[in-house]
Amino acid sequence: MNFLIGIEHFERCHSLTYKMKKLIPQRLVIYTKDVENLTGKSPQAARRLLRLIRKKLGKTEGELITVSEFCDFTGLSEAQLAPFLDN
To answer: Source organism's superkingdom (predicted)?
Structure first.
């Protein structure tokens, strides 16, 4: 009897862990592929735009561009970009 109760308890707890929704944070960083999809630019032009933004912000080559920085530079709102940046 105790063994069956143990199995039922395990199954109940195990199913709860899989039913919990995984929290995915809102995207903070924008990548070349995002710029391509948003603007219709070629990969090279998208990289060039990100390099220009990075240069204007005084960032080094390896530093990332945030969505808010991209929006400030392009004049787009984050609300406009949100549907395109879903993970």
So the answer is: Bacteria
